[in-house]
Amino acid sequence: MTERLSTSSLAGTTGAAAGDRPPPARFAFDRHTWKEIAHLLANLPAALLGFTYVVTMLSVGVGLTITVIGLPLLAAGLRGARQLGKLERARARMLLGVRVDEPSPLPSLRSERGFFAQLWMSLKDPVGWRTVLFEFIRFPWSVLTFSVTLMSLFVLWPVLPFIARGLTNVDRAMVRGLLSPSDELERRIAELESDRGVVVDTAAADLRRIERDLHDGAQARLVNLAMGLGLAKEKLLEDPDAAAAMVDEAHGEVKLALQELRDLARGIHPAVLTDRGLDAALSSVASRCTVPVRVTVDLAERPAAAIEGIAYFTVSELLQNVSKHSGAGSASVEVWRSSDRLLIQVGDNGRGGASLDGGTGMKGLADRLSAVDGLFVVDSPEGGPTTITAELPWRDRTEADAAGSAARR
Is 290 helix (H, G, I), strand (E, B) or coil? Predict the structure, then answer.
């Protein structure tokens, strides 16, 4: 098992990187200066294109709002404005070294959301409206910067690097202020909306699985049991020995049906997890693995039941992968708390090569953890060993119970 790490340290940071800043301006014309000059000269045609687009879009869209097509045209125009912003971010990244995060995308027009929900989301899109504002502000500014740069090329050549740096710093400020995500809240809202879809899809898939297991397993056995008991009742008087044999067979069917129901209930939420916590529950899972598993759970208290359940099923599925795909001789499970996070590491000495797109359910696990603000990191080079780290938010059981009681009241 590798050294314990919090996967929070593996998450990237957003916003402009420190290396985005160009070196200080000098009298020499280096590549940064020439890129800035190219950006300033390209400002006018780019601004003319953007300004023409937004003026036309607003004139047509707003002017036709009294008709049925006005608002859809305005919404489509705002989606197009997003693409203008994307092009400007790419131009600033290439010529000015400005790297800002891409805003969270709007849902696809082919998504399952209703037409009016998508229309309203597009109309109130802050990214689209900030791009419109950017194009309005940038047009007069681009006329000024184009004129000053062009004149400086012939008149103020010695100090052109300083002029270019000063003018492009304003462009950098506009790109960061108007074309970057407004704040982390906007991105977080979009992520939570996407995660909500994952949770709904996962819950629906689990319900279908439970329904299928009940229909094909316990329900089928109970139907056969009822038919067998019915036949035994008919033969009870005329052939008691045959009836006794049929009752004995039905008794065996009852035992099998009960076992299938227990397995199904354990798949939904195992009783040992509720009664004794993660240590006992994970030890039970490890005992069913086809390779020896060392389990270490270092928890002074229990997290919320929902977090325990996610941790249990995450380890359970990972150990199933160890049994089926790893070819390992041994495996280990470690669970501990770090600040307000629950950390899980599952490792094995198998052949490695596991990945999120490897068809072993890793992508589904990553999506499920992401839906509850968790992280999932796979470290599995070819030849092994494999170490998978999962991180979940820690929520105290007492606080979660209190919140649940308050909600029920």
Answer: coil
Phi-psi map region of 339: left, alpha, beta (phi>0 left; psi -120 to 50 alpha) = left
Record the tokens describing residue 161, joined without a space. 């690097």
Which strands sit side by side in the sheet containing 331-338, from one edge to the other? 293-298, 331-338, 341-348, 386-393, 375-379
Distance, CA of 132 to CA of 135 (rounded, Å):
5
Q: What is the CATH number of domain 271-408?
A: 3.30.565.10
Q: What span, in angstroms and rounded, lies between the C-alpha atoms of 166 and 46?
A: 20
- Asked if 305 and 397 count as a contact pair (C-beta separation under 8 A), the reply is yes
Q: How far is CA 5 from CA 1, 9, 307, 312, 317, in A?
A: 11, 8, 19, 20, 21
DSSP-derived secondary structure for 45-99: HHHHHHHHHHHHHHHHHHHTTTSTTHHHHHHHHHHHHHHHHHHHHHHHHHHT---
CA-to-CA distance for 166 and 172, rounded, in angstroms?
10
- Reading the chain (409 residues) residue by residue, the pLDDT tens digits are 445 554 444 444 333 444 466 666 555 678 888 999 999 999 999 999 999 999 998 888 888 888 888 888 888 889 899 999 999 999 999 998 888 888 877 766 554 456 777 778 788 888 889 999 999 999 999 999 999 998 988 888 888 888 989 999 999 999 988 888 765 555 555 555 555 555 555 556 666 666 665 665 666 667 777 777 787 777 777 777 777 887 777 777 777 667 666 655 555 667 777 788 888 888 888 888 888 999 999 988 988 888 888 888 888 888 888 888 888 888 999 999 988 899 999 999 988 888 777 655 787 788 778 777 788 888 888 888 889 999 998 875 544 444 444 444 4
Residue-range domain boundaries for the chain: 21-182, 197-268, 271-408
Question: Nearest CA to 198 among 44, 346, 365, 362?
Answer: 365
DSSP 8-state code for residue 101: P
What CATH number has the domain spanning 197-268? 1.20.5
Task: Specify the 3-state DSSP secondary structure of 393.
Answer: strand
Token digits for 388? 């998978």
